[in-house]
Amino acid sequence: MMNERVARTIGELEQFIATVDDALAIPRQAGEFVHALILGCGAKHGVEIGTSYGYSGLWIASALRENGGTLITIDHDPRKSEAARKYFDSGGLTACVDVRTGRAADVLESLSGPIDFVLNDADKESCIRYVELVAEKLSDRAAVLTDNTIDLADRLAEFVAWIRRRDDFYSTTVPVGNGMELSIKRTVR
C-alpha cells in the first residue's frame, strides 16, 4: 500500500494535469508499474529525465524512499521544476528528491554513480545520448525505463534497436501505459 500523503498528492496532481495541455505525464498504470518495479528490485539511487510537473517523480520517489533511497529529477523548464517541487513537498518527499533544472545532458554528465534506476522520458531524439551518459554509472542490474516505445514507436525505433544490440543490456518492451522499454544493465563476462 502506498503512503497516504503521496497517494493524495498523486490524486491532486492528476486533477491538475487534466486542466493543462503541457503536462507530459505517464499514465497512472505506468506509474503503478514503475513504483512496483522499484520496490521489487530494491533500487535506491534513481534518476528521472523529464520531470514535467512531477507526476512520475511522485511514484518513483515514493518507492525509492521506501527502499532508503533518493531521486534526482531533471527538467529544462524552470516553471515546471518549481511546480514539481511543490508537489514533492505536498507529498512529503522533499528530503529524498533533488530537482535539477537545466539541459539533461549537462546534468547527467555531472552525476556520479552508482545509479540503480532511470526513467528516460524527455526528448525522444536524445534517448540514446542519455543512456550513453549514464551507462557507465549504472549499477549491475540497474533498470532503465524508456517511455513511449509503443505510442511513439516510429520516433523510438532507432533507440530500441540500438539498446537491444548492446551486450551490456537486456531489453524488452513492456506493454504498459504508452509502452516502456525495460532495459536491465548487466555485466558483460
Quaternary organisation of the protein chains? single chain
Q: Based on the coordinates given, report the CATH architecture.
A: 3-Layer(aba) Sandwich
DSSP strand content:
15-25%
Number of domains: 1
Overall number of strands: 7
- Using the coordinates above, name the CATH class: Alpha Beta
The CATH topology is what? Rossmann fold
**Rg, alpha carbons:** 15 Å
Content-based structural category: alpha/beta
Biggest sheet architecture: 7 strands, mixed
Which strand order do you get reading across the main beta sheet? 3-2-1-4-5-7-6
Principal-axis shape equals globular
Helix content: 40-55%
Order of helices and strands: HHEHEHEHEHEHEE
Number of helices: 7
Q: Please, what is the average pLDDT?
A: 96
* End-to-end CA span: 39 Å
**Low-confidence runs of at least 5 consecutive residues:** none
The CATH superfamily is known as Vaccinia Virus protein VP39
Describe the structure.
It is a single chain. The protein has a single domain, classed as Rossmann fold, CATH 3.40.50.150. A hairpin with a 5-residue loop joins strand 6 and strand 7. The protein has helices at 4-17, 28-41, 55-66, 78-90, 104-110, 127-134, 153-165; strands at residues 45-49, 70-75, 97-101, 115-120, 138-147, 169-174, 180-185. Helix 1 runs antiparallel to helix 3 (55-66). Helix content is 43%, strand content 23%. The chain has seven helices and seven strands. The chain is globular, with a radius of gyration of 15 Å. Strands 3-2-1-4-5-7-6 form a seven-stranded mixed beta sheet, with helices on both faces. With 189 residues, the chain is an alpha/beta fold.
